[in-house]
Amino acid sequence: IAKGDGRRLYRFFTPVLNRRLLEQFHLEQALRIGLERGELVLQYQPRVDITTGKILSMEALARWRHPERGLIPPSQFIPIAESTGLILDLGPIVLREACQQIQRWKAEGVPIVPIAVNLSANELYQEDLTHRIQDIMAASQIDPAHLEFEITESAAMRSIEQAVTILSQLRACGFTLSIDDFGTGYASLSYLNRLPMQAIKIDRSFLTEIGGELNGHSQGAAIVKAIIGLGSNLGIHIIAEGVETQVQRRFLIDHGCNVAQGYLFAWPLTAEEIEPLLRAGRIQIDETEALV
Ligand code: C2E
Ligand code: MG
Ligand code: MG
Ligand code: MG
Q: Where is the EAL domain (predicted)?
């Protein structure tokens, strides 16, 4: 490379890189302070029986309520929390809040369903995870049957032997376990069999293809069918993620998957917003959207 070119590259890239690192650094500092100030909030997205609309459980999803920037989605702060270790502070805040919300609803006589909390890879392999979780549970006196943990397939595959041990401990405590974003992390089937999971969540990316040009004949459709088959063979529940259309809902019902989460049924909602739905116990499924 000619000297001139190198210099030009240098001049072009360095400020950009610096700016990005600086932004990351500022964001990390802001997040650290935000966590202390209680700016992390949870939204809840129902998982429903897509034939009846009955609410079976819900997933807790973190948002950062920034005083100036508004509601920041997890895609903008979870990766930073992961790479800086801040996730080890964030995770317990999420779990504590989910437990406290269950307590509040119980006290108010709101019919509750289990809440699923996401555990990231760094949390999963944290020393003493089981005890840390048990401490939080003991403080709030929540029945472990009311809690589920979602672990991504890629997190579980990072260190499969360790994952089997840790997840077995959590299972022994009475928690429900599910594999998140399944189909994207190349878990071998023999390992899948060893993980003590009760549910598999089909990654949203496969669902999006259904209803497109190829409809039931896309690769995504084939993968969704294969995962549903896998679930019934292994005796594991299947939850479809990211269901947005009646075509996708119909496809799932036709292929034997009756549980899903997606904008078609409900967005992630604040505790206040989801309360009437919990009281009703179900979601109205609007069948009027044209079936293509
Ligand atoms: P995830 O666990 O796979 O969560 C599902 C994501 O799909 C959520 O995005 C949800 O809002 C979105 N979603 C649900 N239905 C639909 C739909 O019909 N269409 C589309 N396009 N999207 C849909 P969200 O809330 O932005 O969260 C993104 C990711 O951030 C989560 O993916 C999870 O990996 C992570 N995350 C969120 N909260 C937490 C947390 O408390 N702890 C950890 N460790 N990770 C979290
Ligand atoms: Mg999840
Ligand atoms: Mg997912
Ligand atoms: Mg995801």
A: 24-282
Ligand 1 atom 12, closest CA: 242
Residue 260 Cβ inside 6 Å of ligand 1? The answer reads no
Residues in contact with 82: Cβ distance below 8 Å, sequence separation at least 6, in sequence order: 120, 121, 122
Q: 12 alpha carbon to ligand 3 midpoint, in Å? A: 37
pLDDT tens figures, 219-232: 899 999 999 999 99
| Euclidean distance between CA atoms 57 and 47, whole angstroms | 5
Say yes or no: CB of residue 120 within 6 Å of ligand 1.
yes
pTM tops 0.90, yes or no? yes
Instruction: Indicate which residue's Cα is closest to atom 11 of ligand 1.
Output: 268
- pLDDT at residue 2, rounded to an integer: 45
Q: Is beta strand 55-66 parallel, antiparallel or unpaired with respect to 115-119?
A: parallel
| Minimum CA distance residue for ligand 1 atom 8 | 61
Q: What is the ipTM of this complex?
A: 0.98
